[in-house]
Amino acid sequence: MSTVAVVGLGAMGSRIARRLFEGGHELVVWNRDPAKAEELGVGGVAETPADAARRAEAVITMVTGPQALREVTEGDDGVVSGVVKDTTVIQMSTVSPDAVSRLESLLPDGTLLDAPVLGSISEVESGTLKVFAGGPRELVERWTDLLSLLGSVLHVGPVGAGTAAKLVANTTLVGVIGVLGEALAVADALGLGREAAFDVLGVTVLAEQAERRRAAIESGEYPPRFALSLARKDADLILDAAAAAGTELRLTKGARDWLADAEDDGHGDEDYSAVLARILG
User: Fold this and answer.
1) DSSP state, residue 266
2) Is residue 1 predicted with pLDDT exceeding 90?
3) What residues contact 196, with CB distance under 8 A and at least 6 apart?
4) Model-level pTM?
5) Over the range 172-193, which residues count as b (16 or more CB within 10 Å of their CB) and which as e?
6) Are 170 and 234 a contacting pair, CB within 8 Å?
């Protein structure tokens, strides 16, 4: 078993830490709010991200985005300052390609795994996440047993490929929820009853999503699994990365605009599927 540090104890990070702890690993944790780290009760509490990295063989970062990643990895108290030659940094946040490149440039060669995940709270609790691992094959193999406690590990290429894979996956996530909302909006506009609309969707490629979201649409309740504000952030990351590569994404832009409108309407802390409430008015 290994000594693992987890930096960032939000909805995902705290559950990652608990699952690794229950899997027999020794944990060191750090969070901006130290009380949250203390309350989690899964191992030692580090004073800084650098302290966490010094005390661990692998340090996992799970934060909200590129700026948060810079804040916990750079500077005298950042993870990079605590990394030694044999430490592995496993970056699991959803960030930009540039953020991953920047972090890699600050670390010793061959010490970074770019490993964001597909899935949310229930998946991390059940160990069924999809882990998109980018990095040297030998480093991925070294940490596959650890990461397999969280879910299935897919080695997608070198450092940077993990983040690319996550942005590809989330392109489908924001796109599908937007198309589902617009399909129901067309049904409403053309006078097709909601029951009939769901019957129709049930024989299309959206059948599974329509059935999964039906109860929330009918009740107007969207309990958070993946916050809408984070989905909007991810859509921005996708569009920015595509623009930097010279690729136009018209459908994703439309989905991002719906998410932004829903966030402006106060749905930011609800599940991202609350965008359906905004689309359907």
Assistant:
1) I
2) no
3) 187
4) 0.94
5) ebbbbbbbbbbbbeebeeeeee
6) yes
